[in-house]
């Protein structure tokens, strides 16, 4: 009976040193520093929590340093997601899957887990020996310790995520004393499990089979896209690649015999985290981590030959054609990207400290009073988005002769981040005609502090 699924081939990535590996360590260090330390950073505010980044769901406010995001500003998130998508598409079209190789969460956490594995079980050769013919007790002990460390790293990941949603010190105490909300334990447990499974067990399977990006990223490539490539013309030459022990060792002699610069050492395959051979050409499994470049460059350095047998390049460059950077696709992504970034920055910079809305009460639409005048009712919602208390007055304009009635309320005082709803009535002398609507404006005028702009909202008066 044929198997439905191909059995997984174990991958034992080898450690490598080089400029791209150093770049990956740098990105990993920065990403981990931001993720794990940011919720503990304190930030002084005139009003509100002193945590630099806090997603306060009960208070319906997101604190991002000096920026305060309210539910009404959810379109900022939409803009940010569009920016991220356009940036990803543009970078992919220009430089391939660099996001996957350096910035993807799966890559960052898998790198950490593979580092733990190497520290506990040794490098590639040692791990292969351990799995093949190592003592059972030693194999079980080392694997148990390794997976316990995986779980520690996974739990740190899950727990750090939840402290973004509450005051970090307070939530930490309540979490470990069993007093936190059920959602905190569920979220931390869920993220611990998924991080452990994805980065510790599945690893390259996530990139190959689960990530949709690996399947459609090729549609953004063209012959000018920078990708990790093997220079087949240089590596194979006329007589193909050959091990150093099966041919002349001198470079000039190898060239004279038509032998390529690839000595078939297999180092590029051994360091690949997804287990592919880059010499077979571009493959959807490749995450462009460039570790094969470091491995090949190290071999070339030891031999005293030129680097670049495997390198970041484009198909046009390999064919000897000039590579284009500024092309229609780049402008097609870049121009909308810059426009949306500009609009988002403008929207954040010009956000009003006071948010208000007016809705006319529809049942009934109007009421005729005993003196013959007509009364409309309005529901006015006010939200103080400023970091200080405000005192407001409500006025009307645009309808001469109309009278505003707010009961006994003369001024409205709102504390920072406070919202309120006010019922206002407007009376207007009866006018000839039935079913008419007249324009009416509500003015929310800040009395204190000074310098705040009034908010004017246009509505209708029905009679």
3D architecture notes:
- Among the domains are: 227-318, no CATH class; 354-462, Immunoglobulins (Immunoglobulin-like).
- The mean pLDDT is 91.
- The radius of gyration is 32 Å and the shape is elongated.
- The protein contains 16 helices and 14 strands.
- By secondary structure, it is an alpha+beta fold.
- The strands form 4 sheets. Strands 6, 7, 8, 10 and 12 form a 5-stranded antiparallel β-sheet that branches. Strands 11-9-13-14 form a 4-stranded antiparallel β-sheet, with no helix packed on it.
- The termini are far apart.
- Helix content is 42%, strand content 18%.
- Helix 4 (105-121) packs antiparallel against helix 6 (136-162).
- Strand 13 and strand 14 form a beta hairpin.
- Keywords: 4Fe-4S, Electron transport, Iron, Iron-sulfur, Membrane, Metal-binding, Transmembrane, Transmembrane helix, Transport.
- GO terms for molecular function: 4 iron, 4 sulfur cluster binding; metal ion binding.
- The chain crosses the membrane at residues 23-41, 74-105, 148-166, 182-202, 331-349.
């Amino acid at each position: 009976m044929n198997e439905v699924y191909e059995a997984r081939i174990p991958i034992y990535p080898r450690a490598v040193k080089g400029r791209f590996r150093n770049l990956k360590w740098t990105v990993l260090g920065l990403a981990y520093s931001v993720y794990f330390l940011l919720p503990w950073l304190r930030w002084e505010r005139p009003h509100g929590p002193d945590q630099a980044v806090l997603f306060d769901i009960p208070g319906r406010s997101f604190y991002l340093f000096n920026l305060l995001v309210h539910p009404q500003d959810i379109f900022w998130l939409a803009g940010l997601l569009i920016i991220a998508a356009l940036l990803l598409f543009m970078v992919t079209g220009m430089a391939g899957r660099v996001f996957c190789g350096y910035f993807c969460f799966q890559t960052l956490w898998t790198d950490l887990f593979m580092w733990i594995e190497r520290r506990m079980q040794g490098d590639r050769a040692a791990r292969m020996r351990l799995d093949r013919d190592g003592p059972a007790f030693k194999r079980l002990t080392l694997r148990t310790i390794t997976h316990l460390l995986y779980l520690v790293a996974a739990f740190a990941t899950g727990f750090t995520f939840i402290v973004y949603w509450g005051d970090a010190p307070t939530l930490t105490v309540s979490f470990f004393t069993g007093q936190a909300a059920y959602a905190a334990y569920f979220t931390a447990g869920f993220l611990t499990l998924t991080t452990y499974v994805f980065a510790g067990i599945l690893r390259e399977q996530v990139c190959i089979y689960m990530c949709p990006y690996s399947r459609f990223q090729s549609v953004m490539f063209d012959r000018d896209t920078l990708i990790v490539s093997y220079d087949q013309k240089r590596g194979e030459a006329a007589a193909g690649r050959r091990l150093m022990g099966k041919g002349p060792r001198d470079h000039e002699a190898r060239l004279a015999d038509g032998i390529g610069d690839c000595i078939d050492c297999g180092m590029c395959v051994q360091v690949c985290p997804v287990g592919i051979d880059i010499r077979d050409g571009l493959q959807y499994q490749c995450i462009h981590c460039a570790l094969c470049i470091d491995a090949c460059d190290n071999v070339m350095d030891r031999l005293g030959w030129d680097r670049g047998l495997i390198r970041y390049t484009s198909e046009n460059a390999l064919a000897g054609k000039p590579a284009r950077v500024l092309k229609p696709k780049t402008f097609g992504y870049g121009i909308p990207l810059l426009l949306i970034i500009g609009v988002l920055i403008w929207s954040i910079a010009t956000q009003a400290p006071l948010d208000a809305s007016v809705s006319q009460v529809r049942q009934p639409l109007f009421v005729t009073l005993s003196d013959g005048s007509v009364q409309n009712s309005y529901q006015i919602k006010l939200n103080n988005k400023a970091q200080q208390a405000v005192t407001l007055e409500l006025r009307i304009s645009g309808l001469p002769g109309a009278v505003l009635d707010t009961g006994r309320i003369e001024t409205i005082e709102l504390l920072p981040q406070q919202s309120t709803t006010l019922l206002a009535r407007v009376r207007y002398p009866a006018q000839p005609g039935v079913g008419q609507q007249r324009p009416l404006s509500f003015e929310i005028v800040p009395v204190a502090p000074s310098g705040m702009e009034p908010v004017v909202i246009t509505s209708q008066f029905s009679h």
